[in-house]
Amino acid sequence: xxxxxxxxxxxxxxxxxxxxxxxxxxxxxxxxxxxxxxxxxxxxxxxxxxxxxxxxxxxxxxxxxxxxxxxxxxxxxxxxxxxxxxxxxxxxxxxxxxxxxxxxxxxxxxxxxxxxxxxxxxxxxxxxxxxxxxxxxxxxxxxxxxxxxxxxxxxxxxxxxxxxxxxxxxxxxxxxxxxxxxxxxxxxxxxxxxxxxxxxxx
Length: 202
Description:
Layout: E1 9-16, E2 23-28, H1 36-41, E3 67-82, E4 92-99, E5 107-112, E6 116-119, E7 124-127, E8 133-135, E9 145-154, E10 162-172, E11 187-201
Antiparallel strand pairs: 1-2, 3-4, 3-11, 4-5, 5-6, 6-7, 7-9, 8-9, 9-10, 10-11
């Protein structure tokens, strides 16, 4: 029996409608494994895994064949912009990553400049930002969805074999339209959340 897409679960992502007074949910899907092997492949801390066909993402953000999803985490934190803010300003992330789809998961990693993700066991991966694929988020206030190839890894643990990272279902994170609006302001921190999916060869 094929894996099922369960539309009854919320993915933790809400897309702002045209009217800012209302919202409409973007539903997620829960992967229900149908074999012991599939269960073993699921992340130890959560059974919330998706078959790729249940993720409605642009083809340009899909991971090349030969790579397998092994970790999904919910990231929440800030995107930090240096003043003055321009159209070409790049943000530095400061976030925690929790296992699964939302705020109830265990802490599995932190995310900071590089871009770098570091797991609790000390293993880490640095993304190749220069070769990342960007796609505009459906949420007009959300930072881009990304497909980021790994540039380097270190340690021997959870993130030591990462080949690709996806940042999806972003909420917030874009710089304010009025930029740095206080005299002497040197930086702006903007709250955001996103789903991060980690892949390795397999």
